[in-house]
Amino acid sequence: MKNIAILVPETAVIEAIADPNYMFKAANQFLEVSGKEPLFNVKLVAAKKEIKLENSLFSVHADMLLDEVSATDLVFIPAISGDVRRAVEANKELLPWIVDKYAKGAEVASLCIGAFLLAATGLLNGKKCSTHWNAANEFRNMFPDVELVDGSIITEENGIYSSGGANSYWNLLLYLLEKYTDRDTAILASKYFAVDIDRNSQASFMMFEGQKNHNDPEIIKAQEFIEKNFQERISVDQLADMLAIGRRSFERRFKKATDNTVVEYMQRVKIEAAKRSFERSRKNINEVMYDVGYTDTKAFRTIFKKITGLTPIEYRNKYKKEPAMA
């Protein structure tokens, strides 16, 4: 029997508590139907018996309090909502409990923005982590000692797991289900819950928002210039000269402030504009490519796929819905 503890933090997202609970209890039913013994003992665990969520819209009744859990095999940390710094502070009594259970052999998995709580334990220092793409900049600011993997659906290191944003955590649930049971059970669950079992990237969902939450005004000027003139050929030397900064110093400061090289930043701004054009217009691939400042089809396709995980035509077909014929 595998004991699973699903934490119920203050400000948790209700779905990120209900979904793993549902998944592993349903897995027990799948196992029983196939003639096997149920494997998972799933409990909701909290600092107090009742946790009110989303302005008291929901109330979650814990099966067990923290000090009632002597041992567990897997701890789920669900997504949290609202101001993440306040959420971490509101749940600080959970942190030593998570550390203690990990030290005693439990695996730990964070779902989406639950990564902020996991990182606050210190267990992720020097390790890789995934979270919602939209929270990446704030995560890096709060936890500079954690290696955030952009666009990843699942990370795993030393019995610590994390997932990408929103519904991406279903892929982590399936991954863990397969690990604890077998491929057939995971496939059955993926079909039952209508989840693509092997999706491994958030890239096609990501929207690039340049990191401007820093204190380097010259670099902000460079970012704004790039964003307003992305159709043009802009060189690193041009930007450095415009700001009267030496090239090496400019490149170093830009990377430190934005977590992108200057060239990477320019590429991501261009590709973000291309994505919006594919979503909102009926322009063909070459028209969009020229609009965002590329003239080499192969280079555009390569960079587009590197950033989004899809080719330009795959992206257009995925997100551009053609009007139905009359």
The overall pLDDT, averaged over residues, is 88
Structural class: alpha/beta
Between the first and last Cα atoms, what is the distance in angstroms? 57 Å
Number of helices: 14
How does the overall form come out from the CA principal axes? globular
CATH architecture of the largest domain: 3-Layer(aba) Sandwich
Question: How many domains make up the 3D coordinates?
Answer: 2
- Strand % is 5-15%
User: Nearest-angstrom radius of gyration?
Assistant: 23 Å
Question: Can you give me a brief rundown of this structure?
Answer:
The chain is an alpha/beta fold. Helices cover 46% and strands 13% of the residues.
Could you walk me through the main structural features you see in this protein, from its secondary elements to its overall organization?
This protein has 326 residues and is of the alpha/beta class. It is 46% helix and 13% strand. The protein contains 14 helices and eleven strands. The strands form three sheets. A seven-stranded mixed β-sheet has the order 5-2-1-6-7-11-10, sandwiched between helices. Helix 6 (169-180) packs antiparallel against helix 7 (183-192). The longest helix has 20 residues, at 14-33. The mean pLDDT is 88.
Label this structure with key terms.
Arc Repressor Mutant, subunit A; Rossmann fold; 7-stranded mixed β-sheet; 46% helix; two-stranded antiparallel ribbon; globular; 326 residues; 2 domains; alpha/beta
